Amino acid sequence: MDWGNVTAEDLMDALREVDWSSPPRPLSEFFSRFTVPRSYAKWNSRLKCNLYYYRTNYFILIIFILGLGFLRRPVALVAAFMTALSIAFLNDSFAGTFSEKVTRSVRQFSPHLAAKMRPPLTPVLRGRPSAKRAIYICGRPRWVFLSIFSTVSFILWFVSCGLLTVLWALAIGLLAAISHASFRTPNLKARLNTFREEFRAVWRNYSEL
């Protein structure tokens, strides 16, 4: 797969649809080999490949730096958690996993309430869904949870006055992730993982025909 031909929009769509439950890469692999890219095209391709392959490591790195910045601002830490959760709900895999785990936990003490949290059935016409499958969280459309968590996080940001802190911490975290992705040489595992994801995308498109 030629990452140089992958646009930023394609990369964001892939990160939105991919499964984020995979464990992070080992530190021995994460800090293995660093080289300077020879050209802009090489850097562009390497950056996109590493951002996709080490996505879990970068997410943990940014969360860790944000946590260090919020040691003296607990309310801002809660606001950052709510904001991160709102952003995570944009990922289809995370939204589905979150809804499933919450529904399973509720079913233990209230099966009737858990039945109401099931997503509605998508109508099927001639063996195909009538429309693109909508994402539901605990039986409600995803935008409901996004609105609630975004509003609560905005109020907490306003109360804590810690927006400047999170901007500095977020900038440092993003700079660290981009710097690592720019100089970390893609290994064979990253290339094989790329080919596997490309095959899955092609197979998914084939199965929809």
From TrEMBL:
Lineage top rank: taxon: Eukaryota
Subcellular location: Endomembrane system; Membrane
GO cellular component, one term: membrane
Keyword Oxidoreductase: no
TM helices/strands, residue ranges: 52-71, 77-98, 143-160, 166-183
Protein's membrane topology: Multi-pass membrane protein
Protein's name in the database: PRA1 family protein
Natural source organism: Carya illinoinensis (Pecan)
